[in-house]
Amino acid sequence: MNVDFHDQTNTIESDYVDLLKRVLHFTAEKEDVSSNAELSVTLVTNNEIQTINRDYRGKDKPTDVISFALEEQVEEEVTIKGAEIPVALGDIIISVEKAKEQATDYGHSFKRELAFLAVHGFLHLLGYDHMTEDEEKQMFQKQETILGEFGIER
Fold first, then answer.
1. Phi, psi of 150 (to 5 degrees)
2. Where are the extended beta strands (E) located within 34-84?
3. CA dist., res. 123 & res. 139, Å (int)
4. Which of 33-47, 53-67, 83-97, 113-127 is predicted least confidently?
5. Inter-residue contact 23 to 119 (CB < 8 Å)
6. Residue 131 domain boundaries
7. Taking the mean position of all CA atoms in its chain, how far away is CA 84?
8. pLDDT in tens, 59-113
């Protein structure tokens, strides 16, 4: 899987970039994601994610992570067959400032919070959601299992 990484804050050390790529690859293996899949991860400021949150979700406040899935097939859409076209899963946008705030609030490391947000955003790209109590339970259990197996605990 190809992960296209962009740090628009210019504040993230290469160790963190490597961690995010490894945890996303690990999640892809756990979820049987095609090896020719691709996605992008962009790290932004609270101001940038607030603008995105306002423009696309109608919520004028910063949030921690937003995902834009590209592989949602709509009714009557034609499926392309036969070609080895990379599967473009979508984009994950993470607020570095919000990740730092939440790490402090939850009493765990910035490393853990970044990994959590990356996995959370990735699961959204794969179709998981938390709109109902059952969906939330399933998604959050999956996140904790993936992070635990990867070696990142609370």
1. -75, -20
2. 37-44, 65-69
3. 8
4. 83-97
5. yes
6. 2-150
7. 25
8. 999 999 999 998 654 455 444 454 455 689 999 999 999 999 999 999 999 999 9
Q: From start to end of the chain, where are the E strands?
A: 2-7, 37-44, 65-69, 87-95
Residue count (the chain): 154
Q: For the chain, how many structural domains are there in total? A: 1
DSSP strand pairing (87-95 vs 65-69): antiparallel
Residue recorded with tokens 């959050």: 140
| E strands in 11-151 | 37-44, 65-69, 87-95
pLDDT confidence bin for 145, thresholds 50/70/90: very high
The neighbour count for residue 79, using CB atoms within 10 Å, is 5
Q: What's 65's domain CATH number?
A: 3.40.390.30
pTM over cut 0.85: yes
Which whole number is the average pLDDT over 49-68? 96
